């Protein structure tokens, strides 16, 4: 493969995670070290900033501040949810990017994101090929939802899972303080995949796992749910429930959005989120003291509790993308191939971007019990290695020391 | 003071905190070491368990498991919210406790709790004095709300403040990821005192503090709130708001419980909590994308993020109570006297239980700005030393290793 000399552009996309900036660190440091790469540019707000020509010169950042990226949550360069049309449908965006890249002699493009971002990456890569512009395009995975195909798991998931399992262990302690009966419903993110809600089960290694777990992979039945909760509550006087935000009824409607039927005593759409809605229904049926807790943004930005394994893997994914691109690879997403028997090992591999674009990796049905209200040991064995390792983060005044980049504009 | 030889009973009461078990550790280890104390008993579920004679023999616990209490959240022995009548009104409970204490020769009683618990402590202490039963009664403060009088601050508050400031810093990062405008409302505990919501301002040492903070000490005005938020939102396209659960209208009704008037477009009681209610109102007025986040139980059970200063002080408060009781003191609550100029120092002192019982220490009005939508530098200077120090907690499988006590029954 011929040596390709030029600048690189790195961009972050989609929902942020606790370790997406660890991948940024991997990309930036590897790119700064690569003799083939003349300039390291970062796009503001993903592809949206790129289209506006809003780039930062990352070569001007201090090395120490860059290192703080390893423990800085969210997308430090900003993100977007911009969906590009195919160039057959509308070439405008592609021409804009091509002109910018030509002008700055950009020959490497690294895009860090989820399903939609891999789709964008794939489209840009094919367009460059078609118009004969030599630019190596690489995707770097990230998502707390863990729904990317073609990889054992995605950076960002392990840290969210660790945050969830830790918080559930602590909530479990709290809910057992009083003698009185209580039902607690905790809601995790995950519109279509239940990896996050399922990870609550790992709290069993610390305190106790939830009594019931509901995932989007199984059709939700309100009657069965009420039966399950009532049975646990009558037996234990306590019931801790984990639910994915994406659980849905047989007709495909989200439980969180559906107007609960009048027979459940609620005649209007609930505004308080799924956990509060379900807790309210249980209160009405059982008379139990209830509480709904939504982990909300906390589960994806809780960098103080990030898994060191996840940080390391996110960083390696970033630097691997650069190394492979410099070596001649293009049109691929970095992925993980892992083994768990006889000790966890994570190998970096490459997948065609098309495999990863627009597909969803869901929790296998056989990793969920028959009743559809708990996960199996296989699920736990899969997640456990991903939450290992306490990160040794920097603090200032007892609070997290985040990276403070200069973000010097290129143009 | 004459030497008093006998058993001791220790009990935990009220809402749990991240470090209440650090006080338990202080009491238990000091009591086990004291030659005057023959047995160390723990009451299950506070005074409620005591009334049922449900005691554990804490002398039978392993030293290592006891040490894990330093990083175990919630009340390990269980708690209660039982309010004792005065013995003039009804002597039953007092006689029950007296008989139990006589039977087991209990001569020391340590009660760890908040305002109500100090009241209980005071009543029990006075009763023993009146009937001539020699038993030294000591109160040990705890509350995340920081509303106990007679002490600079209370154990439990610093860790909750650290959790809140850290989470706000992380949320701040997350809400700045997209270019689009957003308004985020985060709700903290605190029915009558705004110490917790105010602590969100400390996030400025890490990322940025909230734009607006609303405390129960200032009457809430919905119109002013909407004006304030709109002004910030129009100027910055982002607005992060911290609110105490206990903010109330001029008529004394809690905003969280009040039916929002029809002019605000909400004709029914909101079930989703204060943050979601306020976010909904802002969305309707500004059209902004909004999100309501309730920190819920997480802020009081987040031991993984406990302040080491708080852990140390909680432990010292526990052991000091034992040392003082053995030395002859009774009818007192352990309290903190602190200096901040020229470096933080925290001295242990004693206060009459009556000073601490049933009073509330609120945020001074002069520590809140005139408009009532932010706190002053004095507030920040007061809280900052309390959140210092990262705790070096034990983990197992990447999750917190909590104490696992044997809880051997006494009777």
Describe the structure.
The structure is a homodimer of 411-residue chains. By secondary structure, chain A is of the alpha/beta class. Chain A has two domains: 6-144 and 302-357 and 390-400, Rossmann fold, CATH 3.40.50.450; 157-300, Rossmann fold. Helix content of chain A is 34%, strand content 18%. Chain A is built from 13 helices and 13 strands. In chain A, the strands form three sheets. Chain A has a seven-stranded mixed beta sheet, with helices on both faces. In chain A, helix 1 links the parallel strand 1 and strand 2 (37-43). In chain A, helix 1 runs parallel beside helix 11 (308-326). The longest helix of chain A is centred in the middle third of the chain and has 19 residues, at 157-175. The first copy, chain A, is elongated and about 70 Å long. Chain A starts with 5 loop residues before the first strand and ends in an 11-residue tail after the last strand. Residues 259-271 of chain A have low confidence and may be disordered.
| Shape-level CATH architecture of the largest domain in chain A | 3-Layer(aba) Sandwich
For the sheet with most strands of chain A, the description reads: 7 strands, mixed
First CA to last CA of chain A: what distance? 32 Å
Shape of chain A: elongated
Number of strands of chain A: 13
Average predicted confidence as pLDDT of chain A: 94
Give the oligomeric state of the chains in this entry, treating copies of one chain as homo and distinct chains as hetero.
Answer: homodimer
Judged by helices, strands and strand pairing, the structural class of chain A is alpha/beta
Within the largest sheet of chain A, what's the order of strands? 3-2-1-4-5-10-11
Low-confidence stretches of chain A: 259-271
Strand fraction of chain A? 15-25%
Number of helices of chain A: 13
* Helix content percent band of chain A: 25-40%
Number of domains of chain A: 2
Give Rg of chain A in angstroms.
23 Å
What string, H for helix and E for strand, traces the elements of chain A in order?
EHEHEHHEHEHEHEHEHEHHEEHHEE
CATH-derived topology of the largest domain in chain A: Rossmann fold
Please name the two chains that share the biggest interface, counting residues whose Cβ lies under 8 Å from a Cβ on the partner chain. A-B, 65 and 65 residues
Overall CATH class of the largest domain in chain A? Alpha Beta
């Amino acid at each position: 493969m011929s040596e390709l000399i030029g600048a690189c552009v790195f961009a972050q996309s989609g929902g942020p995670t606790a370790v997406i900036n660890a991948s940024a660190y991997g990309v930036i440091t590897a790119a700064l070290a690569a003799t083939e790469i003349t300039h390291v540019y970062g796009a503001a707000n993903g592809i949206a900033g790129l289209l506006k020509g809003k780039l930062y010169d990352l070569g001007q950042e201090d090395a120490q501040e860059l290192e703080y990226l390893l423990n800085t949550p969210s997308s430090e360069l900003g993100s977007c949810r911009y969906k590009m049309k195919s160039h057959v449908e509308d070439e405008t965006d592609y021409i804009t990017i091509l002109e910018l890249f030509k002008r700055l002699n950009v020959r490497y493009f690294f895009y860090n994101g989820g399903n939609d971002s891999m789709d964008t990456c794939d489209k840009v890569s094919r367009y460059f090929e078609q118009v004969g512009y030599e630019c190596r395009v690489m995707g770097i995975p990230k998502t707390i939802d863990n729904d990317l195909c073609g990889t054992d798991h995605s950076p960002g998931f392990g840290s969210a899972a660790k945050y969830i399992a830790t918080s559930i262990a602590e909530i479990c302690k709290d809910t057992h303080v009083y003698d009185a009966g209580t039902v607690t419903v905790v809601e995790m993110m995950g519109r279509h995949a239940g990896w996050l809600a399922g990870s609550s089960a790992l709290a069993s290694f610390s305190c106790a796992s939830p009594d019931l777990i509901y995932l989007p992979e199984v059709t939700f039945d309100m009657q069965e749910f009420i039966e399950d909760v009532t049975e646990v509550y009558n037996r234990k006087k306590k019931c801790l429930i984990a639910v994915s935000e994406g659980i849905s009824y047989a007709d495909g409607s989200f439980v969180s959005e559906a107007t609960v039927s009048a027979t459940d005593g609620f005649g209007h759409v609930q505004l308080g989120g799924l956990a509060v809605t379900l807790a309210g229904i249980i209160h009405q049926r059982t008379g139990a003291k209830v509480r709904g807790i939504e982990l909300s943004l906390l589960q994806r930005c809780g960098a103080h509790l990030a898994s060191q394994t996840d940080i390391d893997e996110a960083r390696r994914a970033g630097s691997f993308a650069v190394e492979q691109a410099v070596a001649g690879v293009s049109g691929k997403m970095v992925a993980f191939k892992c083994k768990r028997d006889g000790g966890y090992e994570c190998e970096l591999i490459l997948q065609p971007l098309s495999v990863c674009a627009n597909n969803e990796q869901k929790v296998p049905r056989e990793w969920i019990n028959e009743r559809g209200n708990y996960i199996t040991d296989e699920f736990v064995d899969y997640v456990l290695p991903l939450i290992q390792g306490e990160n040794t983060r920097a603090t200032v005044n007892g609070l997290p020391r985040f990276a403070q980049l200069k973000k010097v504009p290129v143009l």
